[in-house]
Amino acid sequence: MTAPQTPAPGPLAGIRVADFSRVLAGPYATMILAELGADVVKVEHPGHGDDTRAWGPPYAGGEAAYYLALNRGKRSIALDVKHPSGGEIARRLCAGADVVIENFRPGVAERLGLGYETVRGGNPDVVYCSISGFPGEDRPGFDATIQAESGYMHITGESPSKVGVAITDVLAGLNAAVAILGALHRRASGGPGGRVEVSLLGSALSGLVNVAQSALISGEEAVAYGNAHPAVVPYQTFHAADGRFVVAAGNDRLFRALCGAIGRDDLAADPRFSTNAGRVRHREALIAELEAVFATRGAEEWTTLLDAAGVPTGKIRGVLEALRAAPGSTFQVEHPTAGPLDLVRTGFTVGDARHDAVPPPLLGQHTFDLLAELGVGDEDAARLAHEGVVRQAPAPSAR
Hints:
Number of helices: 18
Shape: elongated
Protein name: CoA:oxalate CoA-transferase
Enzyme class: transferase
Number of domains: 2
Largest sheet: 7 strands, mixed
Structural class: alpha/beta
CATH topology of the largest domain: Rossmann fold
Keywords: Transferase
CATH architecture of the largest domain: 3-Layer(aba) Sandwich
InterPro entries: CoA-transferase_III_domain, CoA-Trfase_fam_III, CoA-Trfase_III_dom3_sf, CoA-Trfase_III_dom_1_sf
EC number: 2.8.3.19
Strand content: 15-25%
Helix content: 25-40%
């Protein structure tokens, strides 16, 4: 009998990341790196830790859901980097790291002795990633303001509307992870590590893709289409007899399939609607015809019928409903205070590599272990803890 194959280690096994970021974009990027096998050391303030630890309810085992969503697979050291001794330990961590990532406001890292030039002085091959809100500006970057200033609110829903998740942070986190991987690859090929700079605003603007390009080509301001699409018709929500559902007929073949499935081949034969460009020009007339048909049956019946015809269609689900309807979208870890904890998987796999899931750490859960790895003796560690420079998480009480 053949023994089961052991999953390969993650492609970033052996890579250490010193993570000075907080809130969403940076922690999301470093969680991706942890998923790929990197040893991510999360540096947090001893008093309050990452801001998101307080962003609740809801909580599980005293930990905010927001924080839990972004920090699995990491080790936490609670360290006051503003204290001279804490700053020295932080620089020692940076000196042995392959990647350093921070999202301090401009100038803060330099004042703390953790800026790129200082870190590179002790670690010439380091990949150093800075995440900011607005490139070249000393302004705090929060998703809501970035969505406002990047055009997202202008084109979303019944304009202006905010996307229901901090999408600009997510985009910036993905961009940071991709750029860091590129810099690591260059370094592995004999080149330098170097500096990676990512901004929320730049990530948001690049994420506008076709909407931005259309505005540049036409010279006209983008228009909010709500749940419809500016350049593809029909591609939107429709009202059935008992609720709403989505149809996404993204090309002429799918439109013909849609018309056949609903018994309206005449619409496909209508010269106004035979091409996507025509359907865009005659949007209102076509949508009125389709709405009249869809109002005659329930959403479940329509989605079943359209699925069978190969027409992209979807039910409008709640978040919890969507997670429960997608097999394998979540997995469970054993958290030290919350117990069994369901988390959402990342949207990728890399071959048969698997980084065993480690639950999001408690504040300072690994402080003493990491201090020992950095050459700090037990007596010095105890003294630093007494002075409030570091903090070790207390052992969780039995549940």
